[in-house]
Every structure is written in structure tokens, then in C-alpha cells.
Design goal:
With 72 residues, the protein is mostly helical. The protein is built from three helices and no strands. It is elongated.
């Protein structure tokens, strides 16, 4: 298991199912809002770190969602 997957499982274990679902919904909504902003105003070279952060957040969310599918 990769470290990020292990951490995702720790987070899941600390959350009640309803709280986890709420957290995932809020995280997805936040990332959708950020993605919409980048679509409205194309990124330039100064935005590269922010784009990497958004990609990392999306990847983390996907790992958490995949890990929780079998446990809900």
C-alpha cells in the first residue's frame, strides 16, 4: 500500500460514514470550482504550481473515493 493510500485509510477510519460523504462532497465541489476558474481564465506560467496542487487534490480525492467504495 502506498503512503497516500495508507493515510487515506487512516482518515476514513477517523470519520463517521456521514461525515466522510460530506467531506468528499465538499472537496469535489471545491475542486470543481477551481477547475471552472481555470477554464474561464487560461493558466499562464505563474499558475503552474496551482495547477499541480489541483491535480494532486483530485488524485487524492480519487484515492479516497476508491478506498471508500468497498467500505460503505
Amino acid at each position: 500500500m502506498r503512503p497516500i493510500e495508507h493515510r487515506a485509510r487512516e482518515i476514513m477510519g477517523a470519520c463517521q460514514p456521514d461525515a466522510m460523504a460530506d467531506m468528499l462532497a465538499k472537496a469535489e465541489a471545491s475542486m470543481q470550482a477551481v477547475a471552472a476558474l481555470f477554464r474561464e481564465q487560461p493558466a499562464d506560467g505563474d499558475d503552474a504550481p496551482h495547477l499541480r496542487e489541483v491535480i494532486a487534490l483530485r488524485s487524492t480525492l480519487a484515492l479516497i473515493q476508491n478506498a471508500t467504495k468497498g467500505e460503505q
